[in-house]
Write a structure and sequence with these properties.
Mean pLDDT: 88
Radius of gyration: 23 Å
Strand order of the largest sheet: 1-2
Helix content: 55-70%
Largest sheet: 2 strands, parallel
Order of helices and strands: HEHHEHHHHHHHH
Number of domains: 2
Structural class: mainly alpha
Distance between the termini: 34 Å
Number of helices: 11
């Protein structure tokens, strides 16, 4: 079971600085004869953390031999999804446009007000590191597509918004009506539940290699 222990201040984001702070704290917790009890260390995939020669994990293992490095499986799934979508130009544009909708409404209380009146639901912000946030905005836009189009149409025709807002609303309305956009919206609305399920499975506390293999096989067969 994971428990929060403490925050440790570091001077900078170099592997030397981070490892030095970690080792100072670990050395205060483990005596020389108890160091074998530290059996794992897990971080995201940043090179400063995972580097095999000069990363934090390697510097820790010099002093704690059994502290094997594990790259967070859920974070790996995030990276895979980001890479998979960013290499297809049309999909990359789709997600960029999709995320712009939430940004549009957060820039003005007046815009947010009309969103609340017509759609009656706020749009989640996207995240570059948490794919499940992208899943939330896909589902929200899909489920409220007609109301969102009505919202943008109201902004265009109400006469109470500035020209910049009207121009942007017109662009988003055309985007929501576009056949390609609607195709990708429907496609990812069907894919995202399977991604979310896999994401949740990879964050379970009692998983092992066999469980992960089965979860990946189930995910693959579900999306094919």
């Amino acid at each position: 079971m994971e428990r929060f222990f403490e925050f440790l201040p570091v001077m900078d984001a170099t592997s030397e600085s981070i490892a030095s702070v970690l080792l100072d704290r670990l050395n205060s917790l483990f005596s020389e004869g108890d160091r074998e009890q530290l059996i794992a260390q897990a971080y995201d995939g940043a090179s400063v953390m995972r580097g095999e020669r000069a990363g934090v994990q390697q510097k820790v293992r010099v002093h704690f031999k059994n502290a094997h490095y594990v790259h967070c499986y859920a974070h790996q799934l995030n990276l895979i999804m980001q890479q998979a979508t960013s290499h297809v130009p049309a999909v990359r544009v789709y997600f960029s446009d999709l995320c712009g909708i939430a940004t549009f409404f957060t820039r003005s209380p007046k815009r947010t007000s009309i969103l609340d009146q017509i759609v009656e639901r706020r749009l989640p912000r996207a995240s570059s590191t948490r794919w499940n946030f992208n899943s939330r905005i896909v589902n929200t836009v899909h489920e409220n597509l007609d109301d969102l189009m009505q919202c943008f149409e109201s902004i265009r025709t109400s006469g109470s918004f500035d020209s910049t807002t009207v121009r942007e609303a017109s662009g988003f309305l055309r985007m929501l009506q576009d056949e390609d956009f609607q195709f990708f919206l429907q496609l990812f609305h069907q894919i995202m539940p399977h991604v979310d399920m896999l994401y949740q499975q990879l964050q379970k506390k009692d998983i092992d290699a066999v469980f992960i293999k089965r979860a990946l096989q189930s995910f693959t067969s579900s999306v094919q």
